[in-house]
């Protein structure tokens, strides 16, 4: 057995790491010179440390174990205590979003009608399972429209770049329909299933999240950066042959009993098309909306808002330009020069597709204008920078169903997928899934 891994993002690197620990032969090919894919930390000459991928990580048991394995435990930096506060725009001003069902009832953010609908959820019977039900429909059915407009919608836009009217509940939050079926009430099920489970720590690494993927790559014995897989073929004995393109030119890789796809669907589809055209078509259809992150720094004295939280999300019903902002300097103060604050503002996504394609200058100007309006900012930014993803986060909408079915079918041909479109969009999801796949391959 030998595994050919295509793609050096967190999924591919984690898979290779656990295969290596299990003594399973592998080769990992990454087209870019830098490992990590979307995990990318950028230190600027002006003194800012930016994350141009995930801005923070939830410290899951699998992630914690991997960091310890790599000798990175002492690099963990917890988010500041104020990060527990999450703000949402309502009525033109930012208000703290209740963090739990009890505080939702006592906090003034939601109306009395919304609170009454929340209480009624305990008595609502479970509906029949519908695998086509969207996130918005599920929450509207269980909790009412106000919860969808001012909690679910901004959360899905800010975290998943998604539209809850399109994302499927059984793909995005599969545990929620399970709780409904088991306990008759999502809230009752959540209360019973989460007893004793505290909130997971929100962390980063001192020199940026990219430290994780850099360290993984450095410890792999069969990692080949700057080497793109340009074609996949199959020999008569069933092994896979890879055509490689590196700085040295074109070459062929030896046969592999198994392949692991650690690529976005739009990159995996052309490789699969000659051998598995139906699977390739399903993967090519997955939707990745455009998104940009605009980083804006200001003198602290120029910003009236206390910025005592993780950041603020903008519901679609409020008619804003951006999906929301992370208050980077509040979460990790050491990432900006003294006396300054830094906003990481997200533009685009499935609900804001047109703005996600606008030019650099237009986005920066619009973001500055909106920040000035809602945060009481006077004067121009000290510094601004934009990072663009023409195709950002895979959407777990109706199109992902066929892609997941195709991935399941490919396992019979010894091909597994460990990218975020298969594992889940969060870094802990990708680590958990890749480790599980490594264990299954090793057992095989």
TrEMBL record:
Matches recorded under Gene3D superfamilies: FAD/NAD(P)-binding domain, protoporphyrinogen ix oxidase, domain 3, Protoporphyrinogen oxidase, mitochondrial, domain 2
EC assignment: 1.3.3.15
GO cellular component: cytoplasm
Keywords per UniProt: Cytoplasm, FAD, Flavoprotein, Heme biosynthesis, Oxidoreductase
Catalytic activity: coproporphyrinogen III + 3 O2 = coproporphyrin III + 3 H2O2
Transmembrane helix listed as a keyword: no
Any one of the GO BP annotations: heme biosynthetic process
Pathway(s) it belongs to: Porphyrin-containing compound metabolism; protoheme biosynthesis
Record-annotated Amine oxidase domain positions: 10-441
Pfam families in UniProt: Amino_oxidase
Localization, UniProt: Cytoplasm
Coiled coil stretches, renumbered: none
GO molecular function: oxygen-dependent protoporphyrinogen oxidase activity
Co-factor(s): FAD
Function, as annotated: Involved in coproporphyrin-dependent heme b biosynthesis. Catalyzes the oxidation of coproporphyrinogen III to coproporphyrin III.
Family statement: Belongs to the protoporphyrinogen/coproporphyrinogen oxidase family. Coproporphyrinogen III oxidase subfamily.
PANTHER family found in the cross-reference section: PROTOPORPHYRINOGEN OXIDASE
This protein's name: Coproporphyrinogen III oxidase
Organism of this sequence: Hymenobacter properus
């Amino acid at each position: 057995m030998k595994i050919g891994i295509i793609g050096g993002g967190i999924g591919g690197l984690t898979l290779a790491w656990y295969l290596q620990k299990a003594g399973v032969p592998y080769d990992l090919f990454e087209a870019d010179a830098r490992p990590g894919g979307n995990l990318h930390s950028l230190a600027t000459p002006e003194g800012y440390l930016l994350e141009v991928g995930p801005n923070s990580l939830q410290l899951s048991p699998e992630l914690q174990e991997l960091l310890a394995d790599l000798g990175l435990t002492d690099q963990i930096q917890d988010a500041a205590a104020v990060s527990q506060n999450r703000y949402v725009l309502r009525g033109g001003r930012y208000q703290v979003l209740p963090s739990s069902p009890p505080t939702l009832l006592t906090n003034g953010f939601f109306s009395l009608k919304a609170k009454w609908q929340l209480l009624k959820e305990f008595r609502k019977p479970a509906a029949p399972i519908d695998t086509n039900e969207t996130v918005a429909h599920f929450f509207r059915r269980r909790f009412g429209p106000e919860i969808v407009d001012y909690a679910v919608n901004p959360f899905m836009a800010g975290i998943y770049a998604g539209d809850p009217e399109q994302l499927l509940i059984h793909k995005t939050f599969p545990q929620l329909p399970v709780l409904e079926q088991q306990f008759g009430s999502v809230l009752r099920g959540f209360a019973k299933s989460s007893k004793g489970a505290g909130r997971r720590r929100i962390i980063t690494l001192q020199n940026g999240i990219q430290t994780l993927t850099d360290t993984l790559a450095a410890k792999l014995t069969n990692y080949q950066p700057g080497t793109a897989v340009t074609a996949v073929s199959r020999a008569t004995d069933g092994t896979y042959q890879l055509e490689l393109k590196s700085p040295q030119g074109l070459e062929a890789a030896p046969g592999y009993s198994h392949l692991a796809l650690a690529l976005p669907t739009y990159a995996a589809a052309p490789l699969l098309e000659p051998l598995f055209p139906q699977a390739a078509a399903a993967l090519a259809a997955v939707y990745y909306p455009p998104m940009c992150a605009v980083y804006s720094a200001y003198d602290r004295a120029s910003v009236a808002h206390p910025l005592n939280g993780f950041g603020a999300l903008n519901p679609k019903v409020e008619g804003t330009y951006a999906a929301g902002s992370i208050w980077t300097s509040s979460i990790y103060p050491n990432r900006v020069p003294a006396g300054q604050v830094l906003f990481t503002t997200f533009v685009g996504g499935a609900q804001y597709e047109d703005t996600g394609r606008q030019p650099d200058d237009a986005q920066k100007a619009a973001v500055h204008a909106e920040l000035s309006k809602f945060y009481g900012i006077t004067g121009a930014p000290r510094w601004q920078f934009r990072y663009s993803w023409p195709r950002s986060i895979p959407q777990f909408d109706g199109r992902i169903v066929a892609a997941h079915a195709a991935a399941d079918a490919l396992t019979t041909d010894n091909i597994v997928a460990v990218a975020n479109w298969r594992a889940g969009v969060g870094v802990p999801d990708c680590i958990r899934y890749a480790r599980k796949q490594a264990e299954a391959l090793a057992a095989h």
